[in-house]
Predict the 3D structure of the following.
Amino acid sequence: MKKICLLAAVLFGFSQMALADIDKDAAVKMVENVTKEGVEKIINSNSSQEEKNKVFKQLFTENLDLDFIGKYVLGRYWRTATVQQRREFITLYKDFNVKVWSKRFDEFKNKKFVFNGTSSANNPNQIFVNTKVPMSEGNPVSVKWRVNNANGKLKIIDIIIENVSLAQTARNEYTSFIAKSPKGIDGLLENLRQKVK
């Protein structure tokens, strides 16, 4: 019995330590700012699509760790990519996602993000900020924001909508594309250039 209690104490202590490396309240506040000042404000405005894209680009640049995401999305190909290929991929990935998400978030027009606390991640420097968006019909949409603490700076490294990870989805798509393309990474870059245009 004592061994079980000791084990429970160790595990509990570890879980507490795991969450001690990231400020939960600061993570929630950061995501709240993104949703209210960025997503909700621009979506509910009568701005042109060009203006929305401009705001989303600033939002992405300031709040997402694009270098971190880029490395993850390219997977093993990040190691073999040249410095120039890495730089261009990050730029194209950002520009492409700005267009995709400025339109994707349109489904949340006139809706509000409801915050439901946080949950731990496997990495002690990361945490999930949980939100839901009540819809006119059907169940609320679940949106989880994975926040990473890199050298004291909080950045979003993934958005999970209805249990679908944007980062994992992009990783599966891009690594598969590179593997099948005769041009490898250059083939992916060409494809992204076309999509951005």
